[in-house]
Amino acid sequence: MSTEKRAPLDRKRVADTALKLLNEVGLDGLTLRAIAKELDVKAPALYWHFKDKQALLDEMATEMYRRMVAGTALDPADTWQERMRKSCRGLRAALLAYRDGARVFSGSRFTGTDHAREMEENLRLFTAAGFTLAQTVRANSTAYAYTVGYVIEEQGVQPLPGERREGYDVEDRARMLADHPLAAAAGAEIFEDYDRHFEEGLELVIAGVGARYAG
Description:
With 215 residues, the protein is mainly α.
């Protein structure tokens, strides 16, 4: 009989296991039963910690955020533009670390107050730069929505770095749309070079915020 002690089953252990399994099976394959099997427990044991799958997704999103900000320090000397770039780039990198990471994050709520410190610092930086609180929230909410939405679309084509879903070959698409030359040529602008296109879109958001609120 094994005398090895098993780590206690708690919310963090379940979320850590779920995030690990997420990269293997994706969000659609991530069931409480599959997580329980990975943990070597019965599925009902998970309901002591999470009432349903959405509650688990909330904890997973929170853990993703904890990992994203762990060990990072916000520079109080940032301009609002620099802070927005850093925040959006950091969020995108964090979401891309997991298969369907953006889908897990989107619509989830944080289960604690881990995010409050960074949020307070961002609000303080923007309002010190002359934004009202309402403008600060709207500017950052728009940048956040752009980033999450962008990564959802990106991961729909490339679930993980180096992977590409069938049906997203740009040359095949161009041949099928040969009678519509502009639509055919647009494929490379939609389904390729995601890093560059993200940066271009982010600059559009920043320019828009500047023109609307900081002009």
